[in-house]
Amino acid sequence: GLMVCSLAWTSDGKKLISGSNGPIRIFDTATWQQIAVLIGHSNSVNTISLSPNNCLLASASYDNTARLWNLDTNLQVGLPLQHENDLHSATLSPDGKVLATGCENHNAYTWDVHAILKEAGFDDSLVPIGTNIVSSIHQLLSH
């Protein structure tokens, strides 16, 4: 059976998104019909996080990657964000500019969403403009 690990509502309540040991699924809450499937992760998706404008979804998986998805097209944005080990958490900042991820290796990382989008050829419509966070990965926590 399908084990659902994480859920996120769009801010207007019109869509419910689920992460599971299968693909990420998007449901229309008016009909509860599945309206999209986001394919890419090769293992369970533990956590998902939505940007404030509902345009971007971040996901983290036991396949050692975090991924960003464009919810206008339901396609992956840029390359998978590779980590050393399984990922247990991913969350987009309240302004949608930074993705933080938590890894099995006891480290947390921050990723510059603006830089990822720019590299993937997107304009600024997906993310608020004006970020001063350096695009390199920072190790926040280390044991």
TrEMBL record:
Keywords annotated in UniProt: Repeat, WD repeat
Pfam families in alphabetical order: WD40 (PF00400)
Spans of repeat WD: 38-79, 80-113
Residue spans crossing the bilayer: none
Keyword Methyltransferase: no
PANTHER family according to UniProt: TRANSCRIPTION INITIATION FACTOR TFIID, TRANSCRIPTION INITIATION FACTOR TFIID SUBUNIT 5
The protein, known as: WD40 repeat-like protein
Organism whose genome encodes this protein: Suillus luteus UH-Slu-Lm8-n1
Classification lineage: Eukaryota, Fungi, Dikarya, Basidiomycota, Agaricomycotina
